Amino acid sequence: MSAFKGAIIVKECQSSDNRAFSFDTTFYLDHPRLIKVASGEKPPLHFHPYQEEYIEVTEGELAVEVEGREYILTPSDGEFLIRPWTNHRLYPVMPTAGSDGPRKSRFLLSGEDTKDAFKLDKVFFQNWYAYQDEIVVRGKKVDLIQVMNMFDAGGSYLSLPAWVPFRNRLAQIMGIVVGRWIGGLLGYQPFHREWTSDWDAACAKMETSPFLRRFADRIKKD
Fold this sequence. Notes:
The chain starts with a strand and ends in a 16-residue tail after the last helix. The chain has a 6-stranded antiparallel beta sheet, covered by helices on one side. Strands 7-6-9 form a 3-stranded antiparallel beta sheet, with no helix packed on it. The chain folds into 2 domains: 2-112, Jelly Rolls; 122-215, no CATH class. The protein is globular. The chain has helices spanning 32-38, 122-136, 144-153, 167-185, 199-206, and strands at 2-3, 8-12, 19-28, 46-47, 53-59, 62-66, 69-73, 79-82, 88-92, 104-112, 157-158. The chain has 5 helices and 11 strands. The longest helix has 19 residues, at 167-185. The chain is α+β, with helices and mostly antiparallel strands.
């Protein structure tokens, strides 16, 4: 997988038995597309109810924000654990002008396996990176319902402000109701054939929901 015209390269690694996915990810910090993205807002704060997520930096640095605290990870930190229901996001540490800091950030990203159909896995990441490409490269506007639709299918939910009571549970309910139920009825689908290498797996996921089942067409193209 690649995103932003080669600014981000993702290679699939062999996963252990208890992990749903494992990726070797590289951010090229000098790439103009990544510089443009990094100069804007940070990636969306979110959480995963069902899976632990693991991050291990192998080259350079990576910023990980967890419940409002920023960690700058390096290879010496080993594997960093993000527990379920933890609000977090990760983003590159961009070099300052004239610095001799690292020009790329490389890390291993993996996640705990789960029996839930809607989870973080290769199908989700392929479609999420492709959708981001539509926005960054092709200039499409962000559609919040589409984001919530895709995040829900990837076992992820957009975080609400810390002052909101029962913020995580409420965010999950909103993700299901708006993303899956209303989004599905309005024609939003989380996975697309042209973005997915294992379309049968994507169809199997969508078939578990009556709101998304109609998109699980193994014969016709999107």
